[in-house]
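Bug: token stream looks shifted between consecutive jobs. Job 1:
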Amino acid sequence: MSTLESVIWHVLGYAAMPVIILSGFVGVAAVSLWLLSLGKDKEI
């Protein structure tokens, strides 16, 4: 494996965990907001 390939795989490896955690957080927040909006009284 060349040096460039090694660097790319290291960057991908170190970037994977924060991306997974942040995307999970954003997904849970979006679902929570959607569920909360379903229960909100829409009449003014």
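Job 2, same session, no restart:
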Amino acid sequence: MSDKDYELLVKGLEKAEYNTLRMKSMRNEMVLQTDENGNIIRVPARELFTKLYNEPVPTY
């Protein structure tokens, strides 16, 4: 895999993650994450979206 292919793959995955989290936050859903000990926790998607992307949650 060339560097260009790798860059395109990473950008595509980042875009998919953004879109998924955006839609989940619009529907006021929860997402699963792990804490520092590896335990699975539920986090509001709205909270995570605004924290990661510094954007307000869009409305329909």
